[in-house]
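User: I'm preparing a small set of examples for a lab meeting where we compare how different chains pack in three dimensions. I only have the primary sequence for this one, and I'd like the structure in C-alpha cell form so I can line it up with the others. Please keep the answer compact; I'll paste it straight into my notes.
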Amino acid sequence: MAITLTDAAAKHVVQFIENRGKGEALRLGVKTNGCSGMAYVLEFADKVEDEDVVFEDRGVKVIVDPKSLVYIDGTELDYGREGLNEGFKFNNPNVKDSCGCGESFNV
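Assistant: Understood. Below is the C-alpha cell output for the 107-residue chain.
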C-alpha cells in the first residue's frame, strides 16, 4: 500500500514548503496519545533518514518511519475546511475506533 494525498493536501504542502523556504518532505507518523491510544504527528522534514520509508504522490514526498507505517499504511491525507476549522484530515483504513473529539484513534 502507500500514503497518498488529495489535490487539496498536496497543494497546501507545496505552498507551505515554498513559503518556509526549505524542506524535503512532509513527515507523517503516530505517537501514543489521547483517549483512544494514538495520535497523528505531522511535521515538515529537511532531510530523509536512512530508516525512513518515502512515498511520493502529486509531486510531494511523504516520509514515514517504519514503526508508524504499520498503523497508517493506506492512509489518504486530505486538507479542508469545516466551518471555522481548517486542517489536515486522515482517511486511514486501519482505524477501528476514534475518540469523540477526533484527536486520537486505535487500530
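A couple of notes for your slides: The chain has a mean pLDDT of 88. The CA atoms of residues 2 and 73 lie 6 Å apart.

User: Perfect, thanks.
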